[in-house]
Amino acid sequence: MTTQLTSVSNILQLVFPSGARLTLSSDGKKLLTEGYTSIAGNTYFNAISLTDDFVVKENVGVGWLHTFLNGLQIYTHDGKLVAERDFQCFIYSEERVLKEVTDMLTEAIVKAAQRQGIPLNQTQVRNEVFHRVRKVKRLR
Fold first, then answer.
1. Considering Cα of 100, then 104, then 109, then 113, what sign does the dihedral take?
2. What does 95-132 look like in DSSP terms, one character per residue?
3. Is residue 118 exposed (0-12), middle (13-18) or buried (19+ Cβ within 10 Å)?
4. Which residues lie below 8 Å from residue 8, measured CB to CB, with a gap of 6+?
5. Can you tell me the distance from the alpha carbon of 39 to that of 37, in angstroms, rounded to the nearest whole number?
6. Residues forming a β-bridge with 72
7. Contact between 59 and 71 (Cβ < 8 Å)
8. Which long-range contacts (CB under 8 A, 24 or more apart) does 125-133 make?
9. What is the SS3 assignment for 11?
10. pTM
11. pLDDT reported for residue 21
């Protein structure tokens, strides 16, 4: 358990070098940054999920009617940015995050393989990525 906590601490320092204050989500699967509220009354925060393979950082905005996914960043455990995407008016749901992360990682893997001349079956890659994305670590 101590090794896992040390690993999580190291990952968070790479993703949040300023040492942001974090709380655990009610389901125990995400670390949430302390949000801030804009003059317009919208609240913004980040949610971080960990898998055995990567870290997902969600940029979330809560408006008066909907919660929005404003962006996603995917990092390796050593802090290297693998993929990043920004969104506009993208209503938040766990299923949409799962789909977007799967798409982003699949695209990154396929492009990296193409650059090296390695043939890949994109459907097989997508299936493997999907199963790995679903394996978010419970942090408590």
1. positive
2. HHHHHHHHHHHHHHHHHHHHHTT----HHHHHHHHHHH
3. exposed
4. 50, 139
5. 7
6. 58, 85
7. yes
8. 126/102, 129/102, 129/105, 130/98, 130/102, 132/51, 132/52, 132/53, 133/51, 133/56, 133/98, 133/101, 133/102, 133/105
9. helix
10. 0.85
11. 78
Task: Quote the distance between the C-alpha of residue 4 and its chain's center.
Answer: 18
Burial of 74 (C-beta count, 10 Å sphere; 0-12/13-18/19+): buried
How far apart are the C-alpha atoms of 114 and 119, rounded to whole Å?
Answer: 7
pLDDT digits (tens, 9 = 90+) for 38-84: 999 999 999 999 888 899 999 999 999 999 999 999 999 888 999 99
- Helix then strand then coil, in percent of the chain rounded to 5, is 35, 30, 35
Q: Which of 42, 7, 47 is nearest to 23 (CA)?
A: 47
Give the CA distances from residue 31 to residues 21, 93, 100, 107, 115, in Å, rounded to whole numbers and listed in that order.
10, 17, 19, 26, 35
Residue whose C-alpha is closest to residue 58's, from 77, 20, 50, 49: 49
